Amino acid sequence: MSQTEAPNLILQTDSYKFTHWKQYPPGTEHVYSYLESRGGMFGQTVFFGLQYYLLRYLRGSVVTEDNMVEAERFVEQHLGPGMFNAEGWMHIVRQHGGRLPVVINAVDEGSIVDVHNVLMTIENTDPKCYWLTNYLETLLLKVWYPITVATLSRAIRQVILTALERSGDPSLIDFKLHDFGYRGVSSEETAGIGGAAHLINFKGTDTVAGIRVLQNYYKSAEMEGFSVPAAEHSTITSWGRENEALAYENMLRQFPAGIVAVVSDSYDVYDACAKIWGEALRDKVLEREGTLVVRPDSGNPRETVLKVLEILGEKFGYETNKKGYRVLNPKVRVIQGDAVNYWTIQDMLTAMNRAGWSADNISFGMGGALLQQLNRDTQRFAFKTSSVVVNGEERDVFKDPIEGHEKLSKRGRLALHYRDGAWSTVRASRTAQDAEDRLKPVFRDGEMLVTHRLPDVRKRANRFSDAIRFAAQRWSET
Ligand code: AOY
Question: How remote is the CA of residue 230 from the centroid of ligand 1, in Å?
Fold first, then answer.
């Protein structure tokens, strides 16, 4: 990032928050706020991504006198004179060395938490900085995005895993949902954060930025995401329509071993499967040391996938596995990356199941629907104040709109409990001695107190999902 774009933390907030220091009751010393998912598409969320925001934007000395000068000018022009909290920010620069006097508690990254529970809390540690807690909402609430991507990706993992358990080999799961979303996101940063969130659940990705985020913010020394050589339409169509077979043959020659994926719908995907892959290049595919992955990329995904499987089955053969499902010759597989989302994946897997095809035969590439087709309301994320201290007196605060009781917010200082597979949010003051608060301090006065490593995050996400899956299995057996 160039110097001219270096973020000024004072300006990373909503305009109205510039004016909130004037609005709290006189004598306000502490503001305590929390993050929750108020429900939405899924009943649990995967907590992930806070560490990125803390390390990238909040850790260390993040406010300078230069930032103040720039922000003051900006706010005076933007809102008007007297709006900027110069004294407040000067206090942070002078008395705190530019470090933010707040404490943030959060559940461990990778935890799968039932919706409607507290996931994170933040409170100012210096009474003079009562206004800072919610000033940071704009930045911190963006954690909705990695949480929601990780939650969706994990839900799809469970869908595909169920299909593999029924019809094939569950050990293939890690590479069954590949991230194709880099080009379809709103920004490079979105790709980094969302791509990283997907990799909590899977190991296949073409979103390089996601791996970079894990290397830089989750201490990953190892490679955390993998891909394989694959064609795009231009590398096939540049040969000309009459030379489609030569383009495919070139793929087999250039990548003589391992997995190679070839998008095969430039003209007629059925003809490409039957006549080119299935006849002209059949021997070369069968002699190749590896697997050709055919990628259809148009049409109704369910119908196209079924038809492609039938053609490849006829031309290359298949075996019936122990579970009674058809598995293509191991030299060929299919990847579907067009029109893929949470619903169409289930549609395709259901149709395959009915036609007797094992889920082993297919992988999915998911782009926009994985990284961009979600918003803060997918899991109804909210950041609200639940407790304040005014003139030394602690008070519960909450909202409960008459026309929106679903927006009722929690009150008091909060703790998060996990017992017998269920999460609950309780008042921190009523925490029993034996009940562990799952919210842990992760940040205080500019210092990181915990730094999660990716393997631990992954382990946690998998441990919890297994518990939930096995519970569902036990229930279905009764
Ligand atoms: N990548 C598996 C490896 C990746 C891709 C990326 C948009 C791949 C395609 C493939 O097989 O076909 C961004 C579309 C496709």
Answer: 6
Name which residue sits closest to atom 14 of ligand 1, judged by CA.
Answer: 180
Q: What is the pTM of this model?
A: 0.96
Of 172, 176, 178, the one to substitute when testing ligand 1's pocket (max ligand atoms within 8 A of C-beta) is 178
232-262 tens-digit pLDDT: 999 999 999 999 999 999 999 999 999 999 9
The answer as to whether 82 is a domain residue is: no
Using CA positions, which residue lies closest to atom 11 of ligand 1?
A: 261
* Whole-number Cα distances in Å, 39 to 49, 168, 407: 19, 33, 11
- Look at the chain and report how many structural domains it folds into: 1
- Domain contains 344: yes
Q: Which residues line ligand 1 (CB under 6 A)?
A: 178, 180, 206, 227-228, 230, 261, 293, 295, 335, 337, 365, 367
What is the span of the domain harbouring residue 242?
148-371
**How confident is the model over 394-427, as pLDDT tens digits?**
999 999 999 999 989 999 999 999 999 999 999 9
Print the SS3 string covering 236-296. HHCCCHHHHHHHHHHHHHHCCEEEEEEECCCCCHHHHHHHHHHHHCHHHHHHCEEEEEEEC
322 occurs within a structural domain: yes
Q: What is the CATH number of the domain that holds 181?
A: 3.20.20.70
